[in-house]
Design goal:
- The chain has helices at 5-18, 28-34, 50-56, 104-109, 133-139, 148-154, 158-169, 175-184, 193-203, 209-218, 222-225, 227-230, 247-256, 266-273, 277-280, 295-309, 314-326, 338-345, 350-362, 369-382, 394-399, 406-420, 427-453, 481-484; strands at residues 23-26, 43-46, 60-64, 69-74, 77-83, 85-90, 96-101, 119-121, 126-128, 141-142, 172-173, 281-283, 290-292.
- The chain is of the alpha+beta class.
- The chain has 24 helices and 13 strands.
- Strands 3-4-5-2-1-8-9 form a seven-stranded mixed beta sheet.
- It is globular and about 90 Å long.
Amino acid sequence: MERSLREVARGIVERLQAAGHAAFWVGGCVRDMLLGLEPEDYDVATSARPEEVEALFPRTVAVGRAFGVVRVIEGPHVVEVATFRAEADYQDGRRPGRVTFADARADALRRDFTVNGLFFDPVRGELHDWVGGRADLQARLIRTIGRPEDRFAEDHLRMLRAVRLAAQLDFRIEPATLEAIRHHARLLERISAERIRDELEKLFAPRCAARGLRLLQEAGLLEVILPEVAALIGCEQPPDHHPEGTVWEHVLRMLEAMPPEADRLLPWAVLLHDVGKPVTAQRDPATGRIRFFDHEKAGEEIARSLLERLRFPRKDIETLAFVVRHHMQFKDVPQMRKATLRRLLLRPTFPLELELHRLDCLGSHGKLNIYDLLVQERQALEAQPRLRPPLLRGDDLIALGIPPGPAMGRLLAELRDRQLAEELTTREAALAWVQDRWRDLCSRGIEQAAARENPPKAAPSRSRESTKPPPGNTPPASPRAGSDR
């Protein structure tokens, strides 16, 4: 029978201790266990050197030999085992220049926060606390081990990690630690975009996104990392549409209403959907009304730039940029033609767009009539399976002799509209319609090409020579003849 991750992690400690080495669970797994949470992973710290760890376990991968880190693998489970160490000479705000193997206490003192500096022996059931972590867990505080300035100078990303941990655990950041983050916030500009993004994705997990955004702003990091989102603070909105207040308050309300099981991209869609408002805001001088003309178009460009800067995957960038660009379409749903509405319902991004619309409503006026209508229409559409897959695809048109190109694209789009409007419901009817439509397009194309190649001759101009009458038919002289010309 396959052992659980917890059993595997305990077994690793047992084997290390049986071989004469000190070994403990450390870090987040101990913190979560004391908070009554199920750890997602387990880390082990030991006096054993990397080569001794590799000799004790049949499947290992050395991932940081200079740091004494070895991964021990059993079935689907992976546990990181690290030799006790002390670190010094940080020069790049990320890595130590010098690592020396040490004892358990020295290993605890090199760590970032007190709540992550606890060591637990699962064999003897003993907790070792050299940093005051247990008291801070009880007080629900995030505090650095030692001077916060020193810890943040060693690894600048720890400032963002403090905010992320406080958001995830619903803790407060200890005042001296918070003040140091504010003072040194600009150091994050030296950190790679990928590391920043990875922390932000954890910070903006649906269950803690609202807390995360507030803490990011409170700690002075929002302006440094996401200035486009910081611009939402104080951006006023018309009170008849947005009684909640500014765009910032609107976004916070949306994040608070988000279900914890939401799609991982939904918090980003919320953060970015109105990011174009600050740059498009206009106040009517006559009425004082605030308007944001084409803010969704400006927002798409800003969102794309922000996501590219953070090195998001291309698929995520395109999805979020599309959702931002089209989020205003939902107000037009009651007036949409059936085919247009069904196209919206069948978009791959529709589930994300629909949930964004729901939160958009809950974060402002609270009316869900369009959302309810869309849910009903989606259910009705799912009950008609013949409408979901297209009746014909590009290969079918090629088989009919229609070449790939813009004309084929237009044909497929028009065919899809007719299918969604239930004007065409079978493959046979679709084939017949395409053939007729293609013949019509070809005949019109031939006529247009012939017209381009053989333009109609211009009517002869009324020059004196052309208007001169044939001999013998000279009209009588008129005193106004010259003026007629």
